[in-house]
Design goal:
By secondary structure, the protein is α+β, with helices and mostly antiparallel strands. Helix content is about 35%, strand content about 30%. A six-stranded antiparallel beta sheet has the order 1-2-3-4-5-6.
């Protein structure tokens, strides 16, 4: 339900949250399939490779994507580099690159307040552990990864 809350006018309009699902594969990653509202468009995948890499890829004749490279400075600080990817000849078209950068930036700027809100909630004195919804399978996989690697 991330698209529904964080991206109601952008991603959710084209890739409704109701269709997004975790692809159940073994490994230290979570893969989300995002089917399009318009059957003429291609779905896209979002993959989080634990612990600090995230990328998204469209499928189809001219795939595009981006990946987030996190540089951890502590448990509460990081630097993020966003790298764009596009199939040639799109990557060679400055107008396309500019438009694509604006779209990815807009989506990223929608994510920032959501992530900040989650961070405030997790660090709140009122935060309590609880069961996750089946809609949070990707989060559950990440928490399992952390448990296995932190010895908890």
């Amino acid at each position: 339900y991330h698209h529904l809350g964080a991206h109601p006018e952008t991603l959710n309009a084209a890739y409704p949250a109701a269709g997004t699902h975790v692809v159940d594969l073994p490994g230290a990653f979570a893969l989300l399939e995002n089917p399009p509202r318009d059957p003429d468009n291609s779905p896209f995948w979002v993959m989080c490779v634990y612990p600090t890499m995230l990328f998204a890829l469209t499928r189809g004749e001219h795939p595009t994507g981006f990946w987030y490279q996190m540089h951890l400075h502590g448990h509460d600080r990081f630097t993020l580099d966003v790298h764009l990817m596009a199939h040639r000849p799109l990557a060679d078209d400055p107008a396309f690159v500019e438009q694509y950068a604006q779209i990815v930036t807009a989506i990223h700027l929608e994510d920032i307040p959501m992530c900040e809100g989650v961070w405030r909630g997790v660090n709140s004195r009122y935060a309590q552990e609880g069961r996750l919804s089946h809609l949070e399978a990707a989060n559950w996989r990440f928490y399992k990864y952390l448990q296995e690697h932190l010895g908890r």
